[in-house]
Amino acid sequence: MISTADFKTGLTILYDNNIYQIIEFLHVKPGKGQAYVNSKLKNLRTGATIDYTFRAGEKMKQANIERVKMQYLYRTDNTFVFMNQDTYDQVEINLNQISEEAKYLYETLEVEIIYFERSEILGLVLPDKISLTVTETVPGVKGDTKTNALKDAVLETGLLVKVPLFINQGEKIIISTQDGSYVARDNR
User: Fold this and answer.
1) For the chain, which domains are there?
2) How many CB atoms neighbour CB 95 within 10 A?
3) Residue 124 forms beta bridges with which residues?
4) Residue 150 CB: number of other CB atoms within 10 A?
5) What global pTM score does this model have?
C-alpha cells in the first residue's frame, strides 16, 4: 500500500477498480481544514485523463506494471502481432487498444508492450523518434528555399506529414512519435 505522500509523476496506482498513471499532482495545505492532493490521472485501460482530489494520507495499492521489449511483425485486419525476441513468444493486440500508435508501426520496429500483472496488455510505447521512407510527395521547386514552406508527404506506413520542400520521394526522414512532426533527414 502507498499513500498520497508517496506520489511521484509516472507512478501507477490501482484506484476504484482502475489502473491509473499519475501525470501530475500537487499537495495542498489550506489555512483551515484538512490537507488534500490535487492530481491528474491517466486511465491506462481507456487512455482517458481525469482530475481527482485525494485526502492527504489516503492509501491505495500500487499497480504492478511491466514493460517488455518486443518487435512488430505484421498486421492482419484489426490485429497487430508482436514478438518477444528473447523467448519468441508472440502477442496479438487489437487496433482499438493502439489506434494512435498504429500509424507509426512498420515491420521490425522495436516497441515496449505494457503489461498489468503479467497478463493484461494495456498498450505499447513507441520510440521517441522513428525513421520512415517518403512514398509520395510533389517534387520541390528549385530556388524556393528562402521561406520555411512545407508540403505534404505520405510515408511508408500511410502517415501524412508536413515536410520541407527539399524532401523528395524515396528519402528517409525522422519523425517524432509524440506529435507526428518532421524532425530531420535520415542520412544513415
Assistant:
1) 2-62 (2.30.30.30), 65-125 (2.40.50.140), 129-185 (2.40.50.140)
2) 13
3) 113
4) 13
5) 0.75
Alpha-carbon distances of 117 from 16, 154, 171, rounded to whole Å: 17, 39, 42
What whole-number distance in Å separates Cα of residue 61 and Cα of residue 59? Answer: 7
Other C-beta atoms within 10 Å of 155: how many? 24
Q: Which amino acid is at 172?
A: K
d(CA 170, CA 130) in angstroms, rounded, equals 16
What is the dihedral sign for C-alpha 5, 10, 13, 17?
Answer: positive
Phi then psi for residue 54, to 5 deg, are -105, 150
pLDDT in tens, the chain (188 residues): 888 888 998 899 998 888 999 999 999 998 888 999 999 999 888 878 999 999 988 999 998 889 899 999 999 988 999 999 899 999 999 888 888 888 999 999 999 998 888 888 888 889 999 999 999 988 866 665 566 788 899 999 889 999 988 888 999 999 999 888 999 988 87
Coil/strand/helix, residue 143 = coil
